[in-house]
Structure to design on (191 residues):
């Protein structure tokens, strides 16, 4: 799991927000390539076919937990992203409930290898409004139709989705495997 680049460059004066300048390597999105999917607002977990893993970010100078597998380190923030076994993560109980809920409601007993979003009442303040803890396969995320791909078009869609259903933003998927993202919180709140 490589960290997905934010498609617009961060404002150097206030890194919480983006500028209408495309991030190098993400030009394909504005060129109309790839599809847009909903970015769910929970926490990322991965099933490798045998074991469940939780995404974990380690701040510079902090000791990683046991069995942590580092994937990449952000050159600007110094934070390291990787995976730790879900069973030792702070999400263990809620993940177990989500697996049980998905099995009970859908009949799925074996999960496919891949990444999932763990959502529910005790995850990130539950912006998705879930009644139960749940797992959403990223490979099955809702495809979003876009009126255009300009900075203003994407800002409008992302903010509208966040308001309507708690969506965190959009993830763009290119046929060659590249991805890019944009989140509602990347934009200042409208006045």
């Amino acid at each position: 799991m490589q960290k997905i680049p934010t498609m617009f460059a961060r404002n150097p004066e206030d890194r919480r927000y983006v500028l209408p300048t495309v991030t190098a390597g993400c030009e394909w999105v504005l060129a109309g390539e790839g599809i847009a999917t909903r970015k769910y607002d929970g926490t990322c977990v991965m099933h490798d076919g045998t074991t469940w893993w939780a995404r974990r970010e380690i701040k510079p100078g902090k000791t990683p937990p046991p069995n942590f597998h580092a994937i990449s380190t952000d050159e600007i923030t110094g934070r390291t992203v990787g995976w730790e076994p879900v069973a030792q993560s702070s999400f263990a109980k809620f993940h177990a409930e989500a697996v049980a809920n998905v099995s009970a409601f859908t009949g799925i007993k074996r999960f496919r290898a891949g990444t999932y979003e763990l959502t529910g009442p005790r995850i990130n303040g539950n912006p998705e409004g879930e009644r139960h803890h749940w797992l959403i396969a990223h490979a099955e995320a809702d495809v979003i139709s876009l009126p255009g791909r300009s900075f203003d078009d994407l800002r409008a869609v992302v903010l509208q989705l966040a308001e309507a259903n708690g969506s965190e933003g959009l993830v763009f998927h290119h046929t060659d495997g590249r991805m890019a993202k944009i989140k509602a919180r990347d934009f200042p709140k409208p006045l």
About this structure: The helical segments are 27-30, 92-106, 151-165. The mean pLDDT is 93.
